[in-house]
Amino acid sequence: MRHRSNTALKRKSLLTAKVLRWYRKNGRQLPWRNEDDPYRVLVSEVMLQQTQVSRVLTKYPRFLKRFPSLRRLTNAKTSDVIKAWEGMGYNNRALRLQRLAVTVLDEHRGRIPGNIQELEALPGIGRYTAHALACFSFGQQVPVVDTNIKRVLTRLRSPQSRRPAPKEEDIWDLAESLLPRQHSHDWNQALMDLGATICTAAQPKCDRCPLVDLCPSAYRVSRRTRAAKKPEPGRDGIPNRIYRGRTIQALRELKTPGGMTRTALARKIKPNFTSVDRRWSESLLRRLQKDGLIRIRAGNRISLPE
Q: How far apart are alpha carbons 139 and 131 in whole angstroms?
């Protein structure tokens, strides 16, 4: 038992050294990695949830220039926040970010808490984001598990061909067990970069991986046939999420106040709109209004929320 324990400690020490050495030479230079301001880290984490890093690199500084502090974001018009989110997609995230800011101002005197339990109690913050803020903003020695890290740890845990896939809790336990006593910030960022650039989903670059001699899945990951996607609700072969984005973009582009009529908006997002599409269009608008992304004004004109 003692021999097994010593072997595990040596493997962990070697793994840590290899990952951190690789990160020092190959880590991505991302502006939010130089931040410890919880608000700025939070903005980056929300942006990165469903958007490619290359796009966030452009939008991140612009958003912070417009809303440089949590209080400024809280006091802003919701329409201005949605407009500033242009090009990011999934506009609900802009609303969630502002609502979270309001909650922090009301319940925490404008200071984002450093306690993981308090962070998870905030609207729109899950386990990953809470741990990311605790580690990257507050310097806490806690594991972080995003999609990239999960993939790296899953492959390190057992050969890729082995099934079933590990449970989420098992991956968090593994992340906890591998967490070094120091340098957790660099360690977590390094695992993210390793998953994003080397240990990729379809064709991992095992020949360039610093852990190739420690990984039971090395050279055993084959390209998988993608499972057929379930058809999304939509119209004329276009998903509703695309029409939702078009709706918000059309309202962003308005040069004058007062909004758009339902018909004008429908024709803007669907040029071949006819009376047959009216029920579908009304359903789309009701859902957007329920989500807080649009406002149906007097006279049934549509605008962004104030």
A: 10
Domain boundary among 193, 208, 223: 208
149-194 confidence digits (pLDDT tens): 999 999 998 776 556 678 899 999 999 999 998 899 999 999 999 9
Q: What is the pLDDT of residue 300?
A: 83
Is 169 among the residues known to form the active site?
A: no
Residue from 53, 291, 89 nearest 189 by CA: 53
Q: What is the pLDDT of residue 160?
A: 65
pLDDT mean over 21-38: 94
**What was the pLDDT predicted at 1?**
46
Q: What is the model's pLDDT at position 194?
A: 97
218 within domain boundaries: no
Same structural domain for residues 132 and 147? no
Secondary structure (3-state) at 295:
strand
The residue range of the domain holding 75 is: 37-136
Q: Write out the two tokens for 138.
A: 């507050």
pTM metric for this prediction: 0.89
Residue 86 in domain: yes
Instruction: Examine the pLDDT at 81 and tell me if it is beyond 70.
Output: yes
The torsion of the CA quartet 227, 146, 110, 291, rounded to 10 degrees, works out to 0
Catalytic residue among 35, 45, 232, 306: 45
SS3 string of 33-67? HHCCCHHHHHHHHHHHCCCCHHHHHHHHHHHHHHC
- Is the domain of 128 the same as that of 200? no
For 257, other C-beta atoms within 10 Å of its C-beta total 6
